[in-house]
Each structure stands twice: as structure tokens, then as C-alpha cells.
Amino acid sequence: MNAPTKARMRRKADRPGEILEAAFEEFAKHGYAATRLEDVAKRVGVTKGTIYFYFETKERVFDEMIRHVSRPIFDEVTSFVAALEGPFGVRLRALLDFLFRFIAEERVGREVMRFLIAEGARFPDLVERHHREFLVPFLERLREMIAAGIKAGEFRATPALRYPELIFSPALLLNVWWLLFDDRHQIDVKMFIDAQFDLLMDGLSMGGLESEPKRLSAKLPRSGRSKA
Amino acid sequence: MNAPTKARMRRKADRPGEILEAAFEEFAKHGYAATRLEDVAKRVGVTKGTIYFYFETKERVFDEMIRHVSRPIFDEVTSFVAALEGPFGVRLRALLDFLFRFIAEERVGREVMRFLIAEGARFPDLVERHHREFLVPFLERLREMIAAGIKAGEFRATPALRYPELIFSPALLLNVWWLLFDDRHQIDVKMFIDAQFDLLMDGLSMGGLESEPKRLSAKLPRSGRSKA
Amino acid sequence: MNAPTKARMRRKADRPGEILEAAFEEFAKHGYAATRLEDVAKRVGVTKGTIYFYFETKERVFDEMIRHVSRPIFDEVTSFVAALEGPFGVRLRALLDFLFRFIAEERVGREVMRFLIAEGARFPDLVERHHREFLVPFLERLREMIAAGIKAGEFRATPALRYPELIFSPALLLNVWWLLFDDRHQIDVKMFIDAQFDLLMDGLSMGGLESEPKRLSAKLPRSGRSKA
Amino acid sequence: MNAPTKARMRRKADRPGEILEAAFEEFAKHGYAATRLEDVAKRVGVTKGTIYFYFETKERVFDEMIRHVSRPIFDEVTSFVAALEGPFGVRLRALLDFLFRFIAEERVGREVMRFLIAEGARFPDLVERHHREFLVPFLERLREMIAAGIKAGEFRATPALRYPELIFSPALLLNVWWLLFDDRHQIDVKMFIDAQFDLLMDGLSMGGLESEPKRLSAKLPRSGRSKA
DNA sequence: AATGAATGAGGATTCATTCAT
DNA sequence: AATGAATGAATCCTCATTCAT
Fold first, then answer.
1. I want to staple D86 with a disulfide (CB 3.0 to 4.6 A). Which of B188, C152, D90, D130 is the partner?
2. CA–C1' gap, D216 and E14, in angstroms
3. For residue D92, which of D151, D158, D147 has the smallest C-alpha distance?
4. What's the pLDDT tens digit per position in B143-172?
């Protein structure tokens, strides 16, 4: 780490990117205030000065780090949502799978949530940006899907139409669960999604006495993810 | 203003309590690392030294602050859950109302969640304690209630039985929403709970062709909160 | 200097004053930017932190240091000028003696001038304050004295009445001389003042052929200072 | 703005000179310690590295900058003084005019004085060089002129003969005035010189009762500068 | 109990300087 | 000749912690 010194391994193509990724790790581990830029530098294999060559302040490093790690998510969410097709139940399930993957299972999505919650007061713009560019569009897509499902006669006209957040919330719970317990008290994601989907579709209450009330959901493909 | 300041002379006999409450405010606003014990002291109207008379370190102040503000919640949750009665749908609704109040609407509950998420890495015991003493018992109570509801024929036997967290998750969403947006992008809590309850009970899908599938939920009392 | 450590020699009555005097020495030696507050602290026998206990920033230390060392001069100038009496030639001579003492011979006066010249761009208020509170009143007193001398028939009505700075300028020269050369290329202050006074009174040109044109100045007491 | 920037391609052949002139501006504005070589470079339109190609250290840049801007003054002073002719009163007046121009009115002369005062401790050689090459010769010329004037019967034999600095001092005052106040509290240079000349020639005191004591100075040409 | 003065380790930031290209 | 990337020592400032009173 402090090898023969002098080894200025320069022109490493994407120093800023490397720095931001190292910053992600350090900020995720210690939080904004307790992170030392020196440790970020050490992780990249450069010195403090190098970071200041690329970024004006620690705040700037943090801000750009969030942009850096968020962009791929933003992009993928956008294109995924645009590409949804098929029956609405199927679409919904696909959306849930996707959502869980990005917001709960992927470390970046999880930690971004931690950053927003923990450092939101210091970086209010960041929070607003995520609301505007990520949350609002996503919820709107959800709402449209539900509305279309209702029109198509697949879904009930529920007040949930006003609160697509409700559909979103189990994924958030998993996200927070992970943030809190990491790998202690693990939850089986696949089973959790299945359970949400079942509950979401048919609810808790005994729906009368009919023989085949659960048809629709029963036919749906379960979460395609096999590894979890 | 800094005359013989008699207001300060009250010698509340509860200096430690005062300090912990001031600490709550400061830690909530700035996070652990960025909070200055001096500001906590100033808020109480004493000097830093006084804090060190009662608490050994800053970490200790934080830890005891969490205990201090959590205890009333712990207690109330315990006794509330023990006192639930009546039809299970009604109990569930009551539990939801309660949950929302403590985890989302009350500032203390909200901020404790922020502390756990933001500082969990630094205070792992804290997180474990909340898991053990708050979350697990609460989820267990939820599960028992659902199980009893199923036994009583009121509820379907859903896989949600394994994941009572699902029922808990909208409250968490509201909690996080508040942590992120404070009073920007407000959500109407009463309508939100109603929506959750409706969805939770009857689900999204058109439940076959039966004539009266939604009876139960229709009869349930709506949220008792009148102001929202 | 780094003795047995722990010797917190506290309550030293006038810590702020001590710090400002140490600061004067360090700033005088190195200039504002090149002075290390740590060296100031070392000079007092405390640590950096102590300085920040009393002063918010380095700029503040500098600013207050100037006030601290300037005040006695301001005060003495004010009271001295107010107390002048006697024939105007005598008064003028006394004023010159006084002026030289404060602006040129005394180290503080000299160094304050250096600070104003060297750091004026960074501390414009400082410069304005000295202009307003020191320079303007002093020049005004000078002017009044000359005007009174003219009225009394002792002085010629010269255009110098508009520029009392002219009378002031040799003292400034000595000041700057000292700032530049310290004790190299020394000038004998007493002789210098005598020379100024002679020149000031009677000028360079041969004043006609009269036998006793220089009476007045010839009778004046020479500078009373004997040590220089 | 940062297109192929052709303006920069002029390859002035005098990069060092450009750098030194940029350095003059930056050092004049911020002082030695607070000047960043990077800003000097930016002013020239090159990078820091380029400066280090021509100069070994920052101190070297400063030192050579002073030489660079002083040389023209040195040269002009030398040749001007050598060329003086005519009655001594006229010569004196011409010398004063010249002096004021170089030491007070011209920015370079003024700022060099600031450098000497502010950074003399760090660059003692600089100060000595100016003393030896500029101040001493100039004062010597002044002294010779006065001595010759006395011999010629134009001037009185005053002790000022020992201190030609006295004649120099109003110009210094104007210089310092400018350094301190820039364009605040302006002084009319022409009137100031006239006043000095009047005072210098005939002094303050009522010169006996003679009828025509002021002949000489009255006939002298006033400052040749017409605009002031 | 409480204060106020003091400490000193620690971290953000700056910038003269280096050097491979 | 000139650049751009990198270094690392230096310095300001902060703040948890200590302790005599």
C-alpha cells in the first residue's frame, strides 16, 4: 500500500470514476461526516491531493458519487418500465421483481437509500432530485399500469390507485431490513415477493365461498429469479 | 437574555433527561458524527463539562438517548398489543392505526428509525436491541393475530402469514417518506391507511364473479383519527 | 518549551492580551499569510486550541491584534495633541518630536504601518479605520496649528496649509526607512528632526541679505530627546 | 473560449517576460505568500509546469519579477539624473517632478515599494540592492545638487544637506498614501508638489521684514504636468 | 454539580513542486 | 516547450475530552 513510493501510476483512464467508487464504499461504511477522504484515496491507491485535483470539496465528492452510482439505476428503471408488455398481472409481477432487485437486493440501490435518509438534511437537492427523477416517474408508471388493469377489467378499482406507494412499500421494507440487519435475520426474497404478490392480488379476507377465486394469481409466473 | 437567567435555575432534578432530550434534537438534525456536544449543552443551558459529569462519552450520550426516547414507545407498544380484542379485522385495523402513529407520525419513532439506519454500523447493539425487543415481538403479535383470524375463518390462509412484515411495510414507507421529505410532498395519512386497509383486505384482482365479496372490509370502522 | 507536558498553567489573567502580543511579534516577522497560529501559541506557551478558544479565526486574531496595539497610540496621540500650548513654533516642534516618536521610533507604530501597507488589501476596514481615527484627526490638528500660527503672524501663509501631510512626511520616511533597513543604514533621529525643523522653518532659498532673518527658529529649543 | 485558442499561439518568444508581468500583478494584489503560481500561470494562459520550466522556485519568480520591473526605473533614473542642467532651483524642481512620477504616480514604482516593505524580511538582498543601486545614488545626486546650489549662492547652507531624504519624503508619502488608499482619499499631485516646492524653498516662518525674499521660487516653472 | 480553560489528535484543504509524456 | 496528473508537507480549524477550581 505504501510500496516503494514514487510509483505514480498515472493516466489510469478513469481516475474520477475510480475515486467515486471508492468513495461509495467509504461513505457507505462510515457515513458522510465520519468518512476520511484520505481513506478514499488510499482505497484507490492515490493521495488526498489527487482527489482534490478532480473534486473541489468533500461535499462535491459525495454529491457526484451519488450521481455516479445512481445513473445506471435511473437509466435501467426508465428503459425497463418503458418496455413492459402483456397482461397487467404479469406486468405488475415483472415490475415487482424488478423493483426488488434494484431497490433491495442490489447494494447500490440500498446504500443510496441509506445516504438519502442519513444525509438528506445536508444534501436536500439530492433528495429532491431522486424524488423528481426517480420516485415520481416510477410511481406514475405504477399508477398507469393499475389504471390500465382496472380498465381492462383485470383489477378492482381500489383506492390504492391513489397510492401506488403501497405496492412499492414491501420492496422498501426489504431495503431497510437489509440496511439494518445486513445478513443477520435474513429474509428469503423470492418467498417474500411471492407472498407480497399473493396478498396484493387477493387480499386477506375470505372472498365469499366460491370454488376458484384465486385463478388469476395462481397462473402467474412466480418470480423468475432462481438464485436468491 | 443572559441576565441572572433564572429559568435555568429550575434544577430540574432531571439534568440527564434534559440532556438526552437536547441530544435527540441535535443528533436528529445533524447525525451522530456531525453533532457537537457543545450544541447539546447550549440547548440545555449548561456547558460541555456538565454533560461529561453525567455521561462518559459522546457514544454513551447517543446510546442512552436512544434508550431514553425508545422506552415509552416500547412500553406503549407492549401494552397496546396485549390489550387488543374483538373481531380480527377490527384488531388488525386498530393495530395498523397504532403502528402508523408510532412509526410514522410521531417524530420520535421516525427519528429513531433514521438513527438505526444511519448509525447502525457504529451501534450494532442498538439495532439488535430494537430487533429483539421491538420488531420481533411486534411481528409475532401480528402473525398470531393473522393466524387466529384464519382459524376463525375471517382471513384467507395466505403466505403472508410467514411475512407479517408485509402488513407493516406501508407504515415503514410513510416513515421513510417523512424522513426524506419532511413536509414536502405530503401524504394524507388517513387516506393512506384506508387505502392500505382496503387493498390488504381484498387485494387488487377482480375476485371472480361472486356478488358480495367485499362485505367484511366494508363494515370495518375507518381510522378513528378525525383531523386528517 | 515542550516541558513535562500537562502543566496547564491556567487562569493567566490576560490570555487574550498575551496572545495578541505574541501575534504581533509573529505577524510582524512573517506577514499575515506566512504566520502560523501554532507559532503564536508556542510563543505564549499554550496550544493552538487555546487561541481558537479566544478568537474565531486567524483573521480575527490579526484584526484584534491591530486594535490591541493601536489603541494606546490612538489614545496618546489624542491627549497629546489636545494638551499643546505655547508659541506655535514651539508647538510645532513638540508635535514633530512626538510624531517621530510614535510613528518612527516606536516599534509598534512602525509595524502597524507595515501591516497597513502589506495587508491593506485583505483588511480594507483596518486601513479605513486608521485613516478615519488617526490620520484625519492628526492632520486636522496640524492644519489648525499652522492656521493659528499664520494668524498670529508667526508663520507665512503657505500652500502647505492645504497639505499638512508635508510636515508629516519626514516622520513617515523614517518609519519606512526603519521598516526597510531595520538597523542597517541608520539615521540619527535627533539630527534628522533638527534638519527637518530647520528646513521647514526657513526653507532652502537664500532669504535676501538681511542680517537676522532666522531669529525665530534659532531660538527654538532643539529636540529634547538626548539619547537617540 | 477554450477552443483552439489561437491567441495563445503567438509564442511571444518572451514567455519569461510575460510570466514576470503576470507575476507582478498577482504578487501586487495578494502579497508573496498568498499568491498562487497557478493564478500567475492562468493569467499568462499557460500551466504551472511552464513556470517551472523557466524558473526554479516561487522565490525565484518573485525575485526576478522585481528585477524585471525595476530595471526600466533604474535606467531612467540614472540617465535622467545625469542629464540635469540649469539653475539649481530649476533642477531641483525637475528632480521633484521626476521623483513623484516614478515613485508615486507610476504603479510599478509604488508596488515595488510595497514589495520591499512587505517582503523585505524574506528577501533582504532585494532591499539591499535597491538601497545600493537606487536609493544611495539618487540621494547622492540630490546632495550634490544642493551642495552646488549652496556654492552658487542660491541655497542656504542648511543641515538638510546631510539629509536629502527630507526632500525625498513627500514623494514617499504620496507613494504610501496610494498604497494605502488607492483611489480613496485622493490627493491632487500637482498641487501637492507645488506646495512642497513652496515650503521647501521658503519655509514656514515669516522671513524678517525684507521686501523681496521670495524672488527665486516665484520665478520657477511650476510642475510641467498639465492634466492634474 | 458545574464551569471554563485548555489540550491535542484529527481531518479538510491548499499549493509548491515533480515528472512522464 | 509545455502539459496534466500526482504528490505530500503544511496549515487552518474542530471538537471530544480533561481537569483544577
1. D90
2. 62
3. D147
4. 988 898 899 888 989 888 999 999 999 999
